[in-house]
Amino acid sequence: MAQNKKLSSLIKITKWKKVIFWDTWKYSYIDIKCLRDDNVNWYTDEEWVFCTKKDIVIAWDWSKSGTVGYWLDGVIWSTLAKLEVTNEEVDTKYLWEFLRSNYKYLNGNVSWVAIPHLKKEFLVNLEIPLPNINTQCLIVSEIEKQFSRLDEWLSSLVRIRENLKSYRASLLKSAVEWRLTAEWRAEHPDIEGADILLDRIRTARREKWLSDNLGKKYKEPEKVKEWIEWLIIPDEWWVVDYNTIAYYFRSWTTAVPKSDPTEYPILRSSSVRSWKIDYLDVKFLSEEDSANKDNFLKENDIVFTRLNWTINYVGNCALVKGSDNKFQYSDRLFCSKISIPEMSNFIEFVFQTPFIRRRIESLAKSTAWHKRISTWDILTQQIPLPPLLEQYRIVEILDEKFSVIDSLESLVNAN
């Protein structure tokens, strides 16, 4: 029968000071990262505390105190400690697995003197069940087998997630070319054509722009003379730039928002992601800074992220739905209004397509640690223009298929 023994009777703890390290020297320098991924990034010539593959290394200081590594060989970092097994009745790997299972306990019981430190008494007073050495090895073997199965399962989930991502991109690509609605289009040859829709867009754009800019001279957007060679569209479609579709496009208030709640929430750059606006991710403005009604988002507005630290979040696009003129937008976002609001859902999908994303990312500039895009980086994007009824059908199909994809992704992420 297994007996419980305190670690104080089974291990010797050795800790030392900081050493000089570089990228090419004599000994491997074991730091906190090595405990997580076994990859050595630094080296040293100083001969201080060595660990061997028979020892356990534990993080003693900082936020990851209690993290353990095994099968490492080199000089340890000053914030780590070496645990050397001193009792032949203990299999080192068995002890390592035991300590891994107690990470939350050790990490949750630290002392603070400027930074968190592992409490030695909590470590050495841990009691480990100690069956005979053969049984310990069997337990370790079973744990490894189960983790191997878990790794295979996680790998399969990753593959499923990537396949769903690829399928989503494929659907978007087919939607803005011709394949997704090819059959539907053949069954509806007499619908209003894209040429008539384009005339309606130009008329509506002119009227709305002049209404918003009284006394100013209107300039008709230039027609797209040729489009991207890999943008394949059927004869019934047109290609326009976004400037032709949008009569309003700008970022707005530069007022500095606060965290203290008021009646005037304002969206941040992080509030907008592809297809999604998080109306809980807000800060607040004063009543004085909220006097301009044009700074409030309205139904069917399309919002873009203007800048972000990460290129993947630059130019993200989402449609405003049900905001009831309550939310404002900052100068880190662009707001656009399109001439024919019924096209809003289709336009939102278009800006998620792989070819638009690639073009936006290629145009982004790096300034002040941010990646950012300009007004014209969006307005000059070429937009495939199907007839309006075909746009409705495309949105209907994508909504249906994406709903299934979203459900599958949620299931994968939950596991």
**Alpha-beta content class:** alpha+beta
Low-confidence stretches: none
For the secondary structure, the number of strands is 26
Specify the number of helices. 12
Helix-residue proportion: 25-40%
From the N-terminal CA to the C-terminal CA, the straight-line distance is 36 Å
The main sheet orders its strands as 2-9-6-7
The fraction of residues in strands falls at 15-25%
- CA gyration radius, whole angstroms: 30 Å
Helices, strands, pairings?
Elements: E1 3-6, E2 11-14, E3 27-30, H1 32-37, E4 42-44, E5 50-51, E6 56-59, E7 68-70, E8 74-76, E9 80-85, H2 92-101, H3 103-107, E10 110-113, E11 115-118, H4 120-124, E12 127-130, H5 133-175, H6 182-187, H7 194-212, E13 238-241, H8 242-245, E14 246-250, E15 265-267, E16 272-273, E17 276-277, E18 282-284, E19 302-305, E20 307-308, E21 317-319, E22 328-329, E23 333-338, H9 344-350, H10 354-363, E24 365-367, E25 370-372, H11 375-379, E26 382-385, H12 388-414
Parallel strand pairs: 3-8, 15-22
Antiparallel strand pairs: 1-12, 2-9, 3-4, 5-8, 6-7, 6-9, 10-11, 13-26, 14-23, 15-18, 16-17, 19-21, 19-23, 20-25, 24-25
Helix pairs in contact: 5-12
